[in-house]
What we know:
The chain is of the alpha/beta class. It is 50% helix and 13% strand. It contains 14 helices and 11 strands. Helix 7 (180-191) packs antiparallel against helix 8, helix 7 packs across helix 10 and helix 12 packs antiparallel against helix 13 (394-421). The longest helix has 45 residues, at 344-388.
Amino acid sequence: MSKKAIIYTRVSTDEQAQNGFSLRDQHEKLKAYCNINGIDVIAHYQDDHSAKTFIRPEFIKLLEFLRQNKGKVDLLLFIKWDRFSRNAPESYEMLSKLRKLNVEAQAIEQPLDMDIPENKIMLSIYLTSPEVENDRRSLNTIAGMRRAMKEGRWCAGAPKGYDNKRDENNKPIIMQNKDADYIRQAFECVENGETVLQFIRQQLVIKGFVCSKNQIALLLRNPLYMGKIKLKAFKDSEEYLVNGIHRPIISEETFYKVQDILDGKRRKNIQPSVHGKKAELPLRGFLKCAKCGKILTGSASKGNGGHYFYYHCSLGCKERYRATIVNEKFTELLHEIKPKEEIKPFYNAILKDLLLEGETEREKDTKSIDFEINKNKTRIENLQDKFADNHIDISEYNNMKQRYDLQLKSLVDKRKDLVYLGSAEKLSDHI
């Protein structure tokens, strides 16, 4: 009595494109094998999915057929063991399931007599080799991508504001598209005091920017927009930033300022140092837009006779005020505010309390910043030791050193701001 078999063919899209694997060729070889050996083919299943798991549409149908027709199928035939699976542990589990259904799995080009114990060694080789090949391919891909990223090339799908392109050497590169200006506006909004991300998103969507709630939060954290590529930690290598070859949408100063704002690092009782502390725009960051109610920014316009300063909205409202007039009106308003003589002592006492409270906060912030400065200096020393001991190459050293130097400079600048404010005790002596 002739044996009955199901023949199974499989190929992934990548294999078909790169190696020319053919489902038809597999099918013809399996049919010829069955004809020569007098085996009846009762069904044929074929998949165009990866063999990393057995969650494949046709293989699932094949198993269901075997369960419903237990005892009616003797063999499951395929060309080679890598057509069956590329995952050794799952392969052994599946072979056990097939045996319980009284079905023997065989690769016609790599036949094995399972009644011979030594052949199980060959089976393990056949099953493990594809998995090793997959792992090696994966490692090569990771190594290739990390190498390209170390050169400053972004190899994945381009984020909003950029498109994936090819340079003159046919290497991947990202270039700015029409969304770049929306990204720039989003960063400027946060930099100018607007921290409600949903409001920023709504304003940009009105202008034509397509962006979800999650995307607006993620893009404001992405260093790619300041021209840096984040190279994630891998084995003994720490995570660090690489200088990208793409054109940045915002400056590093803007990016790090926005990160501080989003992290809630604006210190209490400290007047924000916006845009170089322009004397012509002392109220920038404190005035609200009459139309949308958001914080006004300020900038200079060049005209006949020099520069003219204005307070204006950064979200597209047409509110715009001459800074000299606003400053003058505010000064007049301050002169009108005069406490009654009998309550001046209470004002003085409250002001002293506020200043002393501010000094306590400054001392706490100073200690925290000093701790971070020392930690950063230690990191730089450790980095130098790693480089000296040849644990990292010059490229990794330069990129990580640059990142630590930027962090250190930012911390030192923050500490200078605290020192600049002076102590509350000295201020309270003049009240």
